[in-house]
Amino acid sequence: MTKVLLSLHVLAAIVAVGPVTVAASMFPAAVRRAHAAGADAASIASVRLLHRICRVYAVLGLAVPVFGFATASSLGVLTDAWLIVSIGLTALAAGVLALAVLPGQERLLNGVDDGSTARLGMVTGVFNLLWAVVTVLMIVRPGSTTGV
Fold first, then answer.
1. What is the DSSP string of 20-69?
2. What does the pLDDT look like over 44-84, one tens digit per residue?
Protein backbone atom coordinates (compact mmCIF):
# COMPACT_ATOMS: atom_id res chain seq x y z
CA MET A 1 0.00 0.00 0.00
CA THR A 2 2.91 2.35 0.75
CA LYS A 3 4.16 2.06 -2.83
CA VAL A 4 0.72 2.93 -4.18
CA LEU A 5 0.43 5.96 -1.88
CA LEU A 6 3.95 7.12 -2.74
CA SER A 7 3.20 6.72 -6.45
CA LEU A 8 0.01 8.76 -6.11
CA HIS A 9 1.88 11.42 -4.10
CA VAL A 10 4.63 11.75 -6.72
CA LEU A 11 2.15 11.71 -9.62
CA ALA A 12 0.02 14.37 -7.93
CA ALA A 13 3.11 16.51 -7.42
CA ILE A 14 4.16 16.20 -11.05
CA VAL A 15 0.69 16.64 -12.54
CA ALA A 16 -0.55 19.38 -10.19
CA VAL A 17 2.46 21.36 -9.00
CA GLY A 18 4.41 21.21 -12.26
CA PRO A 19 1.85 23.15 -14.33
CA VAL A 20 1.45 25.79 -11.61
CA THR A 21 5.18 26.44 -11.43
CA VAL A 22 5.51 26.68 -15.21
CA ALA A 23 2.38 28.78 -15.81
CA ALA A 24 3.15 31.10 -12.90
CA SER A 25 6.69 31.58 -14.22
CA MET A 26 5.40 32.39 -17.71
CA PHE A 27 2.74 34.83 -16.49
CA PRO A 28 4.84 37.99 -15.84
CA ALA A 29 6.51 37.84 -19.24
CA ALA A 30 3.17 37.17 -20.93
CA VAL A 31 1.69 40.24 -19.22
CA ARG A 32 4.63 42.39 -20.38
CA ARG A 33 4.16 41.14 -23.95
CA ALA A 34 0.42 41.80 -23.76
CA HIS A 35 1.02 45.38 -22.59
CA ALA A 36 3.62 45.91 -25.32
CA ALA A 37 1.26 44.53 -27.97
CA GLY A 38 -1.43 46.98 -26.96
CA ALA A 39 -3.49 44.35 -25.22
CA ASP A 40 -4.67 42.52 -28.34
CA ALA A 41 -7.16 39.69 -27.90
CA ALA A 42 -4.66 36.87 -28.42
CA SER A 43 -2.18 38.11 -25.83
CA ILE A 44 -4.93 38.80 -23.30
CA ALA A 45 -6.33 35.30 -23.90
CA SER A 46 -2.93 33.71 -23.24
CA VAL A 47 -2.51 35.67 -19.99
CA ARG A 48 -5.99 34.65 -18.84
CA LEU A 49 -5.24 31.02 -19.73
CA LEU A 50 -2.03 31.06 -17.66
CA HIS A 51 -3.93 32.49 -14.70
CA ARG A 52 -6.65 29.86 -15.04
CA ILE A 53 -4.04 27.10 -15.15
CA CYS A 54 -2.55 28.46 -11.93
CA ARG A 55 -5.93 28.61 -10.19
CA VAL A 56 -7.17 25.18 -11.29
CA TYR A 57 -3.94 23.33 -10.64
CA ALA A 58 -3.49 25.06 -7.29
CA VAL A 59 -6.72 23.39 -6.18
CA LEU A 60 -5.66 20.05 -7.67
CA GLY A 61 -2.37 20.47 -5.83
CA LEU A 62 -4.18 19.87 -2.55
CA ALA A 63 -3.92 16.17 -3.41
CA VAL A 64 -0.13 16.34 -2.96
CA PRO A 65 -0.10 16.85 0.83
CA VAL A 66 -3.08 14.50 1.25
CA PHE A 67 -1.19 11.64 -0.39
CA GLY A 68 2.00 12.83 1.29
CA PHE A 69 0.53 12.54 4.77
CA ALA A 70 -0.88 9.12 3.95
CA THR A 71 2.50 7.96 2.64
CA ALA A 72 4.39 9.38 5.63
CA SER A 73 1.96 7.74 8.00
CA SER A 74 2.36 4.35 6.34
CA LEU A 75 6.16 4.75 6.48
CA GLY A 76 6.03 5.85 10.11
CA VAL A 77 8.01 9.05 9.47
CA LEU A 78 5.49 11.71 10.50
CA THR A 79 7.81 12.97 13.24
CA ASP A 80 11.06 12.99 11.20
CA ALA A 81 12.71 16.39 10.97
CA TRP A 82 13.08 16.32 7.17
CA LEU A 83 9.35 15.70 6.80
CA ILE A 84 8.35 18.39 9.29
CA VAL A 85 10.56 20.90 7.45
CA SER A 86 9.05 19.76 4.13
CA ILE A 87 5.53 20.19 5.49
CA GLY A 88 6.36 23.69 6.72
CA LEU A 89 7.91 24.67 3.38
CA THR A 90 4.93 23.20 1.52
CA ALA A 91 2.56 25.25 3.67
CA LEU A 92 4.71 28.33 3.03
CA ALA A 93 4.67 27.66 -0.73
CA ALA A 94 0.88 27.27 -0.64
CA GLY A 95 0.61 30.54 1.27
CA VAL A 96 2.83 32.34 -1.25
CA LEU A 97 0.70 30.99 -4.08
CA ALA A 98 -2.64 31.80 -2.46
CA LEU A 99 -1.72 35.14 -0.89
CA ALA A 100 0.79 36.62 -3.33
CA VAL A 101 1.02 34.91 -6.73
CA LEU A 102 -2.67 34.45 -7.56
CA PRO A 103 -3.74 37.89 -6.21
CA GLY A 104 -0.80 39.47 -8.06
CA GLN A 105 -1.96 37.85 -11.26
CA GLU A 106 -5.50 39.10 -10.62
CA ARG A 107 -4.25 42.67 -10.14
CA LEU A 108 -2.36 42.54 -13.41
CA LEU A 109 -5.36 41.05 -15.21
CA ASN A 110 -7.45 43.94 -13.91
CA GLY A 111 -5.01 46.43 -15.41
CA VAL A 112 -3.20 47.51 -12.23
CA ASP A 113 0.50 47.69 -13.09
CA ASP A 114 2.31 49.61 -10.39
CA GLY A 115 5.53 47.67 -10.78
CA SER A 116 3.58 44.53 -9.94
CA THR A 117 5.00 42.57 -12.87
CA ALA A 118 8.54 42.57 -11.50
CA ARG A 119 7.31 41.89 -7.97
CA LEU A 120 5.15 39.02 -9.22
CA GLY A 121 8.14 37.54 -11.02
CA MET A 122 10.16 37.66 -7.80
CA VAL A 123 7.38 36.13 -5.68
CA THR A 124 6.85 33.42 -8.28
CA GLY A 125 10.57 32.66 -8.12
CA VAL A 126 10.30 32.28 -4.33
CA PHE A 127 7.32 29.94 -4.80
CA ASN A 128 9.30 27.83 -7.28
CA LEU A 129 12.38 27.79 -5.04
CA LEU A 130 10.30 26.56 -2.10
CA TRP A 131 9.02 23.67 -4.22
CA ALA A 132 12.54 22.87 -5.38
CA VAL A 133 13.75 22.68 -1.77
CA VAL A 134 10.80 20.47 -0.81
CA THR A 135 11.57 18.17 -3.74
CA VAL A 136 15.21 17.84 -2.70
CA LEU A 137 14.21 17.15 0.91
CA MET A 138 11.79 14.46 -0.27
CA ILE A 139 14.54 12.78 -2.28
CA VAL A 140 17.50 13.17 0.09
CA ARG A 141 15.53 12.77 3.38
CA PRO A 142 18.41 13.84 5.63
CA GLY A 143 18.59 11.72 8.76
CA SER A 144 16.01 9.24 7.49
CA THR A 145 16.24 5.66 8.64
CA THR A 146 13.85 4.32 5.98
CA GLY A 147 16.62 3.64 3.45
CA VAL A 148 18.32 5.47 0.65
1. HHHHHHHHHHHHHHHHHTTS-HHHHHHHHHHHHHHHHHHHHTTHHHHHHH
2. 899 999 999 999 999 999 999 999 999 999 999 999 999 99
